[in-house]
TrEMBL record:
Gene3D superfamilies: 3.40.630.30
SUPFAM superfamilies: Acyl-CoA N-acyltransferases (Nat)
Listed name of the protein: BioF2-like acetyltransferase domain-containing protein
Domain BioF2-like acetyltransferase, residue spans: 118-233
InterPro entries for the chain: Acyl_CoA_acyltransferase (IPR016181), BioF2-like_GNAT_dom (IPR038740)
């Protein structure tokens, strides 16, 4: 992990953490594994809008100028990060990804009423059939992933280290849903002083209990409410998952995606995407780089 600090008036006003990886033989600046959002962490002095935006652009320009030589850049900004416009002006491409959030001021009852009726019914049904337990142990989660997803991109040692470190700071927990004592779904939650994230999840595909994922999400929402934190559904990996999360009744929240590629690196990426689509369809767990 590397950092770029920017100072103004003798004090640090921004820190940009990143990792440099080789991808397709090219140096690429990316987020560390298991990181969902990155971007400069600002500590700018309060000022009027024009001056604030000007300072952000200045910080981003200095950050970009301080980066090591790269052929590609790829990371996501937190929805509350105000630097996407500055990165666009600095020559980066800015796309829109999405997540869903529930703000602390929304009561648990209001969040429940926001849910689609079918979603509420599925949560009720799962709650009657399953027992959900909180835990500080990540090992059962890893065991369940190995059982259900033998081909995956997890780094179990890193996942365990990250969870344990966060747990030691009282910033992580695991949720396990059991059907007659047998684990059928699990989730890992992590949080800071503002946001609780639904970080990782896995389920037993052969289980016939409907709504078990939704139940764990709801239990995570309850935990966020108990801690008076924003609840972040933490994005989605498929259209099906996106529609399931949307059934909780929250508006999509933009999570800006920042990208840059040199022409050669862009050509490499296009080539590897073609190979993925047309050659390795039945080996979706295979990692090409």
């Amino acid at each position: 992990m590397s950092f770029i600090d920017v100072e103004m008036g003798g004090r640090v006003v921004s820190r940009f953490p990143f990792v440099m990886k080789k991808r397709l033989g090219s140096p690429v600046i990316r987020m560390p594994k298991y990181t969902r959002t990155l971007g400069p962490d600002f500590a700018l002095p309060p000022s009027k809008t024009f001056r604030q935006e000007q300072n952000i652009r200045h910080v981003v320009d200095r950050t970009v100028a301080s980066l090591p030589k790269y052929h590609g850049v790829h990371f996501y900004l937190d929805p509350d990060n105000a630097s996407s416009f500055a990165f666009r002006l600095a020559g980066f491409r800015v796309y829109q990804d999405f997540t869903f959030r529930i703000m602390p001021e929304k009561t648990l009852d209001m969040a429940w009423q926001d849910c689609d009726q079918k979603t509420r019914n599925l949560i009720r049904t799962a709650d009657k059939k399953l027992t959900v337990q909180q835990s500080g142990d990540v090992a059962p989660f890893i065991d369940l992933v190995r059982q259900e997803l033998p081909q995956n991109h997890h780094d179990y040692a890193l996942l365990e280290d990250l969870f344990t470190e966060a747990r030691n700071r009282d910033q992580a927990m695991a949720l396990y849903a059991h059907d007659g004592g047998v684990p059928v779904s699990a989730a890992l939650l992590v949080w800071d002083d503002r946001v609780l994230y639904y970080w990782q999840a896995v389920r037993v595909r052969r289980s016939r209990v409907p709504g078990m994922n939704m139940l764990l999400i709801w239990k995570a929402i309850e935990e966020a409410k108990r801690r008076n934190l924003i609840f972040d559904f933490d994005g989605f990996g498929s259209v099906r998952t996106a529609k399931m999360l949307a059934s909780f009744g929250q508006k999509p929240v933009i999570r800006p995606e920042i990208r840059f590629e040199t022409p050669l690196y862009a050509m490499k990426c296009r080539l590897i995407n073609v190979v993925r689509r047309h050659v390795l369809r039945k080996y979706r767990g295979y990692d090409l780089f």
